[in-house]
Amino acid sequence: MTPARPGRLATYFHVHLVSDSTGETLNAMAKAVTARFDGIIPIEHIYALVRSSKQMDRVLEEVAAAPGVVLHTLVDAELRSQLEQGCRRLDMPQIAALDPLVGALSRYLGAALSTRVGAQHALDHEYFNRISALDFAMAHDDGQGTTEQLEQADVVLTGVSRTSKTPTCIYLAHRGIRAANVPLVPGQENGERLTTLKRPLVVGLTVSPDRLVQIRRNRLEGLNADRASSYVDHDAVREETVKARRAFERRGWPVIDVTRRSVEETAAAVVNLLQERRARGEAPR
To answer: So where are the chain's domains?
Structure first.
């Protein structure tokens, strides 16, 4: 029998993220890639809005002081060249993170590339639509708003307390989707008013009772609140979730189980439901 291998210690490495814009795209890409490696922990050095040779000199100084991998999304040819030459001198790997995708799309589309820095953050209609969606989500959080106001939503999320309704609405708003949420509260709100909605898609969120009790207990501990209540009682919570699930099924609302889903995954599932609804021609204009 082969002896068990001792637990492997985490490996740390420096990653330098260089962008001539906000750096959000590059940061998200770096996190997504490094998450694919077990036991690997990046030490991030973020350089945003790098738009001059002097700024690049400072970047290269910090790269030299903390050797590692350099990722960039630079558009300006001169700054790219300065970074590439500097990394060669330091014998440091540098990767233009978007080049493979941009190159492939350029060949497919036969279109010229834009050299405008931060083009994806332009103050266009889509940007203002996201801001409007965010305002809507905040104004219609946790059951706020009349039925008439909820009618203006693209989607209304409902479910018992602590099923990630609010963070999912905020995430959807960043994609320009007007989302509201209405919690189901025993003896107060049963979601009946949502049955009259015509325009929005109503989606029920559910979670396993065990997971819900854990989440609620953590919530109460954070508030230094009394834990002895039906809010965290296993039997009461189980009954609450079962009633909610039956209500969703009775009303014909699609249901998403968030027990093992992140907020991003829940939001993606909601987007898929919206797209399916539009494909069936059921979404009002």
So the answer is: 11-120, 125-279
